[in-house]
Predict the structure.
Amino acid sequence: MNILLLEALIPEAREWLEARHSVTLQPGLADDPSALRKAIYNTDAVLVSPRVVVNREFLDFAPRLSAVARMIDTTDNIDLELCRERRIRVIQPTTANVRANAEYLLAGLLLLCRRGLGAPLLGGKRGEMRMGRELHGSVVGLLGLAPAAHALGMMLAPMGVKLIGYDPAVHHSSPIWSRLNIKPVSMFELMENADLMSVQVMYASRYRGFVNDKLLAHCKRGQGWVSVGRTSLYDTTALAAALQDGRIEAAVIDTSDPAFVGEGSPLKGLETLMVTQRLASFTRESRLRSHWYVADRMHETIAAPQGAGIEVAQSAPMDLEQPFKEPVVWGAGQTAAT
């Protein structure tokens, strides 16, 4: 079986695949459409990069293809419906970075409580002397019940934090709230009662601009915000106003969108906003989980007998009605049992 890699796997995972299949690493093909069409004609599985669009034209040149993989948990460049029609499995490591995101959120909450830590961490000789606060006894509002919120909730509860939450896609009567020991509240109650806000909404286009003037008008004054959600959630003008007038005392936001604080953005230059460039999910452990998951699932798909019942795609949102369970990290010579 032939596997084409347009992005590199860690050496151990690649060697494991090479012991079982014919594997070719050619990242340059991502920028050469003509050569890529020739290469995928005899390919059974492909690991694509964000620059490659998997559409009808792409798939018409890949009659043998049975699996398309992405290294990060988004499929914006893949036509999922067409892959489903052609029984091509879409592989993405949707849970590999959950704990990494949760730990980033926890670190952000602690940093917001002790903002004087920022100066020495950023290279200053002495931290600014300012009164901190303790996370213990505070009310943390969880905006969104994405899996990172499940892991974060389990970290915060033993620290004496009161957890309240709201998710536009999860009804307040759902049993998931009680299983996670989070009190469900309305959107405005969340804003009015939380000392600190953690944002990890599973994004959909209908949530564009969800954090707007109407929502932020209900802020408990002096809130701290930490976020790994899509920046499309934010009305940047409304967020800038809240940061400037003190409704939000400070915010820590992880994003890959340079325009969020770029030229012309009302957020540019705000001292109360700290933006990191995709640090939340960037850990050794999440990378290890991602690479082994992709390698194992590509092997599983193309090695299975035809009609063996492998699901066509893993593109649907995760089931928020079930508590998140951390994935197993497996090593060379092992495969995932789930």
Summary: DSSP finds twelve helices and twelve strands in the chain. The two ends are 23 Å apart (CA to CA).
